[in-house]
Backbone:
């Protein structure tokens, strides 16, 4: 294929932004910087002191250190980030994803500081970021929502109301995401305790202990629709993505288009997503997520008012640069094209490379990157911010990189993804790369028999393909012996003895 990102509507920098600060780090910061470079807009990175030499810092035109007791605390300090933007005379702030990207108070503070927030306005984030208000808004505009019970402060009353819906139920945090404050309940006996535990976890992670319950769809598929809005009621979709392969409610493989999805279901979900975005006068890029049952019924799940981790698969099949589109919409340029002009080509798959051990329930891993060899081809992108000797800690999310592959069809994309995963060499910290290759090679995945319980259902078969520690040791030894530099260092006669010849003894 050609370049995965098609030329934008404008050449060079014609938007009213000279300099943009990126309120994020790692691979997404590097991703945004690449687009800013192409648009001839100066980039500003932020960092905690422990990542002063990180790749995103080196790539940016300028960098500002943000103080904090921990790296995460620094990246969550809205006041410090805005002060940093003002100190370098930035015009706008791009939030990336995670951290403050869906924080309405941050978006409002950015605007109050006279800066442009590259995303929706604070009111829209508040509306759609709260799962309860978002569900109510969706239902009011004809978007299907699952039968549910709104939260109360009385857990016992909540449990009684929830039991009337029937089981199984899904208990969820009202203000959260990422699987936190979420559990499946299959009987009335466990409902009250599950609700209390979910509320406690929600309070701990999000500072908001509200939880709600909705009917749990067995073996559901997780389908999401990429949307763009101009803030004036205009909206388009960029088709759907399949995000059903998850561990602990968190995605590990995404693809576009979705496998074996009837065209009618796709059209209905895309239309519902556009209807919701238009009604909300949504501005910028966002994602409307749905749960799809085996019976063909789908329900609104939530809306992410930001760029998604998996946005590259949409870029790969549409040729659009979504970061550039975000910036142009924020500049008032409106939508990049009309719905009838949106086209897709081929199939794309994204694998999230994480520092974790699948054999130990995906526990995070730590270490120091001793060797990194990345596959290269015109049909793939390896989104990362990794360096040799970089220390991988538990300070941040365990995702290290994203391997994104395109093919003319799904089977080709799968084969190319497996090949790329096998070619990827990352030594010094354990990753899930081999596990991801096993998922892609599994018969059920190839057949498109996907649902959110895929990992649990096929656990034994997927882990059985993982190499033993002895096999890994043998592989590493063979690889090291294959490096000419190592061979020369270990076995060639060093100077000055090499020049003495046979008389050196």
Residues:
């Amino acid at each position: 294929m050609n370049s995965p990102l098609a030329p934008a509507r404008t050449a060079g920098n014609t938007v009213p932004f000279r300099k943009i600060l990126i309120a994020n780090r790692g691979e997404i910061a590097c991703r945004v910087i690449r687009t800013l470079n192409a648009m001839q807009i100066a980039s500003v990175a932020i960092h905690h002191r422990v990542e002063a030499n990180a790749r995103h810092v080196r790539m940016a035109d300028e960098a500002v250190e943000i103080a904090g007791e921990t790296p995460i605390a620094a990246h969550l300090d809205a006041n410090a980030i805005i002060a940093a933007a003002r100190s370098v005379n930035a015009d706008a702030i791009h939030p990336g994803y995670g951290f403050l990207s869906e924080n309405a108070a941050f978006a409002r503070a950015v605007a109050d500081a006279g800066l442009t927030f590259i995303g929706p306005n604070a009111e829209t984030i508040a509306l759609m970021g709260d799962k309860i208000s978002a569900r109510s808004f969706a239902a009011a505009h004809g978007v299907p929502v699952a039968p549910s019970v709104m939260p109360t402060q009385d857990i016992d009353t909540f449990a009684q109301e929830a039991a009337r819906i029937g089981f199984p139920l899904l208990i969820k945090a009202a203000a959260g995401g990422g699987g936190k404050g979420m559990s499946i309940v299959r009987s009335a006996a466990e409902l009250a305790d599950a609700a209390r535990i979910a509320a406690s976890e929600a309070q701990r992670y999000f500072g908001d202990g509200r939880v709600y319950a909705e009917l749990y769809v067995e073996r559901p598929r997780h389908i999401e629709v990429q949307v763009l809005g101009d803030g004036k009621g205009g909206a388009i979709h960029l088709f759907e993505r399949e995000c059903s392969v998850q561990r602990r409610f968190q995605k590990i493989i995404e693809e576009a288009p979705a496998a074996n999805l009837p065209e009618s279901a796709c059209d209905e979900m895309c239309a519902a997503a556009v209807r919701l975005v238009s009604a909300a006068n949504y501005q910028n890029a966002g994602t409307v997520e749905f749960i799809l049952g085996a019976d063909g019924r789908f329900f609104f799940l939530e809306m992410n008012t930001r760029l998604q981790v998996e946005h590259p698969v949409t870029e790969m099949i549409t040729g659009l640069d979504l970061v550039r589109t975000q910036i142009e919409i924020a500049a008032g340029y409106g939508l990049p094209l009309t719905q009838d002009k949106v086209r897709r080509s081929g199939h794309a798959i994204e694998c999230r490379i994480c520092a974790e051990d699948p054999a130990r329930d995906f526990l995070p891993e730590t270490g120091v990157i001793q060797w990194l060899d990345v596959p290269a081809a015109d049909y793939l992108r390896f989104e990362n911010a990794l360096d040799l000797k970089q220390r991988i800690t538990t300070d941040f999310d365990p995702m290290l990189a994203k391997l994104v592959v395109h093919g003319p069809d799904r089977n080709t994309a799968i084969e190319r993804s497996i090949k790329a995963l096998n070619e990827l060499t990352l030594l010094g910290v354990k990753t899930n790369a081999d596990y991801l290759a096993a998922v892609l090679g599994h018969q059920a995945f190839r057949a498109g028999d996907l649902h959110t319980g895929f990992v649990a259902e096929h656990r034994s078969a997927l882990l059985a393909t993982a190499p033993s520690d002895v096999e890994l040791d043998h592989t590493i030894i063979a690889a090291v012996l294959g490096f000419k530099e190592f061979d020369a260092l270990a076995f060639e006669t060093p100077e000055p003895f090499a020049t003495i010849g046979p008389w050196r003894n």
Notes: The first strand starts at residue 19 and ends at 22. The CA atoms of residues 68 and 74 lie 4 Å apart. The radius of gyration is 24 Å. The domain at 353-466 is CATH 3.30.470.20 (D-amino Acid Aminotransferase; Chain A, domain 1).
